[in-house]
Amino acid sequence: MEDLNKKKSLNLRRRIAPRTPSKRPCLIWENINPDIKKRGIILDLNMYGIRVRTSGIYEIGQELHIQMMKNEEYSQYLGVPIAATIVRSSMVDDNFIDYGMKRTLSEIKKTDRRGGISVPSQNNISKKTNTSDTIIKEKNK
């Protein structure tokens, strides 16, 4: 038992980012079944992961969506849903399970440095400038 506690404390020191404690109500649903939403509470979160307590039963490795709610009546959404994958679970009380989830970050598409604005090339634009060469050529004609 002592080795397990020692290992757990070592993992806590290697966190990527500090957690932000929260007691935010949320709705949780699976990718394959978006119509069945279960209630939960976000216990803490950071930009890389989230910890949720719920009565729903899910498997490790399962992908879920989490929608934060503004109020405890679960009537107003707060922000956009967060996509996450379950990486751990632990039983808390008789009916509740804590799930540790890693956020699934969507791939960012690379765009042009100019923001995707198309600029006509220099070859297609005709320049009408008076230089000494053009003036001499016109006189010689």
Q: Care to describe what's here?
A:
A hairpin with a 5-residue loop joins strand 5 and strand 6 (97-103). The chain is an alpha+beta fold and 141 residues long. It has a domain at 19-103: Beta Barrel (Thrombin, subunit H), CATH 2.40.10.220. It has helices spanning 2-13, 132-140, and strands spanning 20-30, 38-45, 49-54, 63-68, 82-91, 97-103. It has a six-stranded antiparallel β-barrel with strand order 1-2-3-6-5-4. The protein contains two helices and six strands.
Give a concise summary.
The chain has about 140 residues and is α+β, with helices and mostly antiparallel strands. About 15% of the residues lie in helices and about 35% in strands. The mean pLDDT is about 80.
Number of helices, where a helix is a run of at least 4 consecutive DSSP H or I residues: 2
CATH topology of the domain at 19-103: Thrombin, subunit H
Number of strands: 6
Rg of Cα set: 28 Å
Structural class comes to: alpha+beta
Describe the global form.
elongated
CATH superfamily placement of the domain at 19-103: predicted glycosyltransferase like domains
User: Order of strands across the widest beta sheet?
Assistant: 1-2-3-6-5-4
Tell me, what is the CATH class of the domain at 19-103?
A: Mainly Beta
Average of pLDDT? 80
Unreliable spans are none
Gross CATH architecture of the domain at 19-103: Beta Barrel
Range of helix content: 10-25%
* Proportion of residues in β-strands: 25-35%
Straight-line distance between termini: 100 Å
